């Protein structure tokens, strides 16, 4: 599953900026679309109630509905992005829409873990970098996951941190489940020691 | 050895492989709760890779989110909200059958919201690690278990290996001293805590709730408290087991011989944090100062005392929230017209919650034009409530008494609140559109929600308590 994330790449990507704080997973994908039993095609449903009016027509005042947004690789959002439910449908929808990375000052725990398992990079940035991106929404973004470096605009640059294991998994396309199953013996031994 | 917290002990007891700089810990999972929404794609992965479920005996499986709450037809058919709802439940039935997992489906007396039915099944015990593809898994921390929500990929990991890869979280102590005033409940307590910590105050932490006011809570109230830990940003909340825990568990584990139960109970009572255990973060709250709480905004951190004025908006997020809610800053919510009241969810869908609602409704009527849904958290809760005659009190008052399930907590089964109208809800999230596109949710305790149902507006429940006609 995580195999498809091999060789994370994000070079001179454009971005969509949503300045709201605390964007919860009910906004990212409304609960009524969680009835799906597959992972595919969820980009259509991303931010459904933000992107569409009561009749289901695309709104022209939503930054996610521009032709540029359709090509954007990076989403920049206010703090505490992805709070609320554990639904992995949120990163599935973001990834299917075309985003490779989400930039925010901080993320909700489960959402961040879910992103990393789906090749979607949650990059925590400082308030200053965030402000700078909000002020320059046309800036191009390049993310070097190996070096944990974010470059933006003409000369903006900052470091970020991704858990070393998650980084390796993403860079080398290591499947976490394979890693877990490689500890089969230790799991057997642990179970044998259970009362 | 350095003093350890309750969390430290449970964590360390379950490390199959300790974490290093290079990789997270391999953590053993004692109990895996599964439901129809967050599992189908995990079973697909197992199928694609030809993997079996490692421990079917460590799974509690049920259906709750997509299930209709309308009564079954004469032929037993269920009035599903949509074909997609039906399909999702059928997929769950198929996946469980295929992997030899016992499913507490339509015909099981133990079916219900996974966080209500799980404990009722008697399988949630102190000291366990418990996970579920659901953020409110924190509920089970009420028993002194380490319980947290995971995503669907991780559900697959646990199905295949009974383990998870996890970095050790930080510890946060929330101490609630003193005693709750009459008419104030665990729901008000947790809303007051979130109002204080903020909705990301707990990010990266496991909360341990302690103090006099926590000790005084029933198990159901402790579940309400731990349930909303995620609304403070924490993945888990825990309460150390004590006599309240043991007394609750005994009848729920009636199959276990007395001697065996006693032995386990003794071990469970040892399970608590050492004096001097370190917490990275600490919050102290005075229970006596907590009033019945209501939310004015679009996240659970916007709770205020029901008699307190709505604060002035000083940023765009708050301005947008007030506009969405149709609420003005500067005065209390008291008197705000309410069109729908929802009683239920894994936060407040248990028997004592329903009893509190019945106490307010008894001898009174639901306000004309207001729709009130009472949705028991589980089949067991439904039967217990009916045995006590609570269903009659609800129906005589003019409320709807429904089948068990998540229902209007997230409105994915067709139970939807109308656009633009105010709903007072005992659930846990007041996010924009959570209970239906455009619906305006006010979170509150069962008593406060019941009071709103009677008066048709936001009301201080203490006005109606202890003096039913
Ligand atoms: S009742 Fe609500 S919060 Fe609880 S499990 Fe169901 S949908 Fe989730």
Tag the structure with descriptive keywords:
heterodimer, A: 195 residues, alpha/beta, 4-stranded parallel sheet, 9 helices, globular, B: 469 residues, Aconitase, domain 3, Aconitase, Domain 2, 3 domains, 5-stranded parallel sheet, 16 helices, 32% helix
Describe this structure in words.
The complex is a heterodimer of chains A (195) and B (469). Helices cover 32% and strands 16% of the residues of chain A. Chain A contains 9 helices and 8 strands. Chain A has helices at residues 25-28, 48-51, 67-71, 89-97, 109-116, 127-135, 164-172, 176-181, 184-192, and strands at residues 10-13, 15-18, 74-77, 101-104, 121-124, 141-144, 149-152, 156-159. Chain A has a 4-stranded antiparallel sheet with strand order 1-6-7-8, with no helix packed on it. Chain A has a 4-stranded parallel sheet with strand order 2-3-4-5. By secondary structure, chain A is an alpha/beta fold. Chain A has one domain: Aconitase, domain 4 (Alpha-Beta Barrel). Chain B is 32% helix and 16% strand. With 469 residues, chain B is an alpha/beta fold. The model of chain B has no long low-confidence stretch (mean pLDDT 97). In chain B, helix 2 (40-49) packs across helix 5 (152-161), helix 6 (186-197) runs parallel beside helix 8 (219-227) and helix 13 packs across helix 15 (390-397). Chain B folds into 3 domains: 7-166, Aconitase, domain 3, CATH 3.30.499.10; 170-288, 3-Layer(aba) Sandwich (Aconitase, Domain 2), CATH 3.40.1060; 296-463, Aconitase, domain 3 (2-Layer Sandwich), CATH 3.30.499. Chain B starts with 5 loop residues before the first helix and ends in a 14-residue tail after the last helix. Chain B has 16 helices and 19 strands. Chain B has a 5-stranded parallel sheet, sandwiched between helices. In chain B, strands 17-16-15-18-19 form a 5-stranded parallel sheet, with helices on one face. A 4-stranded parallel sheet of chain B has the order 11-10-9-12. Classes of the chains: A alpha/beta (195), B alpha/beta (469). At the A-B interface, helix 5, helix 7, helix 8 and helix 9 of A face helix 2, helix 3, helix 5, strand 8 and helix 11 of B. Bound molecules: iron/sulfur cluster (SF4). The site of iron/sulfur cluster (SF4) has 13 residues of chain B, from helix 12.
């Amino acid at each position: 599953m995580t195999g498809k994330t091999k060789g994370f790449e994000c070079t001179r990507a454009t971005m969509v900026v949503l300045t709201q704080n605390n964007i919860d997973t009910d906004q990212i994908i409304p609960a009524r679309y969680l009835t799906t039993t597959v992972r595919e095609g969820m980009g259509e449903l991303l931010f459904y109630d933000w992107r569409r009016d009561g009749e289901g027509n695309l709104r022209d005042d939503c930054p996610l509905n521009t032709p540029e947004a359709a090509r954007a690789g990076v989403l920049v959002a206010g703090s505490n992005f992805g709070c609320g439910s554990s639904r992995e449908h949120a990163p599935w929808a973001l990834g299917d829409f075309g985003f490779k990375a989400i930039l925010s000052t901080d993320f909700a725990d489960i959402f961040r873990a879910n992103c990393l398992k789906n090749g979607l990079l949650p990059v925590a940035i400082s308030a200053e970098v965030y402000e700078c991106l909000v002020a320059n929404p046309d800036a191009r973004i390049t993310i070097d996951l190996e070096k944990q470096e974010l470059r933006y605009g003409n000369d903006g640059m900052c470091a970020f941190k991704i858990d070393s294991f998650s980084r390796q998994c993403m860079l080398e396309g290591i499947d976490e489940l394979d890693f877990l199953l490689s500890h089969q013996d230790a799991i057997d031994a642990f179970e044998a020691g259970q009362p | 050895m350095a003093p350890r917290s309750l969390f430290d002990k449970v964590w360390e007891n379950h490390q199959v492989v300790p974490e290093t700089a290079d990789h997270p810990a391999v953590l053993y999972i004692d109990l895996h709760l599964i439901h129809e929404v967050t599992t189908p794609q995990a079973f697909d992965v197992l199928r694609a890779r030809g993997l079996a479920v490692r421990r079917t005996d460590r799974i509690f499986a049920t259906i709750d989110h997509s299930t209709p709450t309308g009564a079954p037809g004469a032929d037993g058919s269920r009035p599903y909200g949509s074909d997609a709802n039906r399909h999702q439940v059928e997929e769950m039935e198929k996946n469980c059958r295929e992997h030899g997992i016992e499913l507490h489906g339509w015909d099981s007396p133990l079916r219900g919201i996974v966080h209500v039915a799980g404990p009722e099944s008697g399988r949630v015990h102190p000291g366990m690690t418990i996970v579920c593809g659901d953020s409110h898994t924190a509920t089970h921390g009420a028993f002194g278990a380490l319980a947290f929500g995971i995503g669907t990929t991780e559900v697959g990991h646990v199905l295949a290996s009974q383990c998870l890869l996890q970095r050790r979280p930080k510890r946060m102590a929330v101490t609630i001293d003193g005693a709750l005033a009459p008419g104030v409940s665990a729901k008000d307590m947790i809303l007051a805590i979130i109002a204080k910590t903020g909705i990301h105050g707990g990010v990266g932490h496991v909360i341990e709730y302690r103090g006099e006011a926590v000790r005084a809570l029933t198990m159901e109230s402790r579940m309400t408290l731990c349930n909303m830990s995620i609304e403070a940003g924490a993945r888990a909340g825990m309460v150390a087991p004590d006599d309240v825990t043991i007394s609750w568990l005994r009848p729920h584990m009636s199959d276990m011989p007395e001697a065996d139960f006693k032995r386990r109970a003794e071990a469970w009572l040892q399970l608590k944090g050492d004096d001097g255990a370190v917490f990275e973060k600490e919050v102290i709250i005075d229970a006596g100062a907590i009033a019945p709480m209501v939310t004015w905004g679009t996240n659970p951190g916007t709770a205020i005392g029901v008699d307190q004025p709505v604060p002035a908006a000083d940023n765009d997020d708050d301005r947008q929230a007030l506009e969405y809610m149709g609420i003005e800053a500067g005065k209390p919510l008291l008197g705000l017209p309410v069109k729908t009241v929802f009683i239920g969810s894994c936060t407040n869908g248990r028997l004592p919650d329903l009893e509190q609602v019945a106490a307010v409704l008894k001898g009174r009527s639901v306000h004309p034009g207001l729709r009130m849904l009472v949705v028991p958290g589980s089949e067991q809760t439904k039967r217990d409530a009916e045995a006590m005659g609570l269903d009659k009190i609800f129906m005589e008052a003019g409320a709807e008494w429904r089948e068990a399930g998540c229902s209007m907590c997230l409105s994915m089964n067709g139970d939807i609140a109308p656009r633009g109208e105010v709903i007072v809800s005992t659930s846990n999230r007041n996010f924009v559109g959570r209970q239906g596109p455009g619906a305006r949710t006010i979170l509150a305790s069962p008593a406060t929600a019941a009071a709103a149902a009677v008066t048709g507006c936001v009301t201080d429940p203490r006005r109606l308590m202890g003096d039913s006609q």
